[in-house]
């Protein structure tokens, strides 16, 4: 039966749907097994997606060379190509090849997003990722160049502002760092970066010997931290009263995050 022409078409399609289901369930090993079994027998129309799904599974398992090999098979004409470029950058980072990672992100940035919000988001995310890579390499002016390209409408704007503040701080331009951290605190007070921005703004004030302002920022950060601990305690108590087994919930979350 498996030799019949109809089976040559039906079996890969069946594996395709199975592989997608397994991917969404986090079953990376099963996805890779299906990918290896069918290989190039996937119909041309779904091959790019299968390469992408397999690559994401390889990434989850930290098998970076195989992720790179799968991603490099996705053609430019595929709608998955922009996502593949970002994943390729991550794979090269995992592999330790920073230069190749930057080249992949730059290829993505050079694409025409054609008003596609998903591709636009990937391009913005790439600017932030490259900026953070430059920060790790102590290339702060280049980091500022990339991070400064994000608009206030970007959902990555808080990361960009934090990176800008950090870059100025490391360049010992403390006044500019204070402005960047201040913009982050005022514009996006609920951002997870706002708390650390207060601490770093306090540090910058201390470097300028403005100790009163430094202490004020440290105090604000401590008060926010205390409120967050209080809120977390209250939420945990509410869950206990509702009968939620927090130990079991925590164990399940750890299993889910580990892919197991």
Main attributes?
mainly alpha; about 260 residues; single chain; disordered C terminus
Could you explain the architecture of this structure?
This protein has 260 residues and is mainly α. The protein has 13 helices and no strands. The chain has helices at residues 5-24, 28-38, 47-60, 64-71, 81-95, 98-109, 117-136, 140-147, 157-170, 174-187, 194-207, 211-241, 246-257. Helix 2 packs across helix 3 and helix 9 (157-170) runs antiparallel to helix 10 (174-187). The two termini are 35 Å apart.
The number of strands is: 0
Q: Radius of gyration from the CA trace?
A: 23 Å
**Termini separation:** 35 Å
Main beta sheet: none
Form type: globular
Helix proportion of residues, in percent?
over 70%
| Helix/strand order | HHHHHHHHHHHHH
Mean pLDDT comes to 85
Spans of at least 5 consecutive residues with low confidence: 1-5, 249-260
Strand content: under 5%
Specify the structural class.
mainly alpha
What's the total helix number?
13
